[in-house]
């Protein structure tokens, strides 16, 4: 038990004595996400469904 604690203390002391790191590279500017492909198809289908429902309501009156 004493040997384990001694090894732990001897290994931890040098790690605590080290200076903090640089923090890594600075992040780049966030990339803009274009709204195309699946999102535009989803938006167009939503508009089409809304127009269909609106026409069905007007015909029911």
Automatic annotation (TrEMBL):
Organism of provenance: Hymenobacter nivis
Signal peptide: 1-17
Organism placement in taxonomy: Bacteria, Pseudomonadati, Bacteroidota, Cytophagia, Cytophagales
Protein name, per record: VPDSG-CTERM protein sorting domain-containing protein
Keywords, sorted A to Z: Membrane, Signal, Transmembrane, Transmembrane helix
Membrane-spanning intervals of the chain: 33-51
Highest taxon of source: Bacteria
InterPro entries, alphabetized: PID_CTERM
């Amino acid at each position: 038990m004493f040997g384990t604690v001694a090894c732990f203390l001897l290994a931890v002391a040098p790690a605590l004595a080290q200076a903090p790191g640089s923090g890594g590279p600075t992040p780049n500017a966030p990339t803009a996400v274009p709204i195309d492909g699946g999102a535009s198809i989803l938006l167009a289908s939503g508009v089409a469904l809304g127009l269909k429902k609106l026409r069905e309501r007007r015909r029911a009156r």
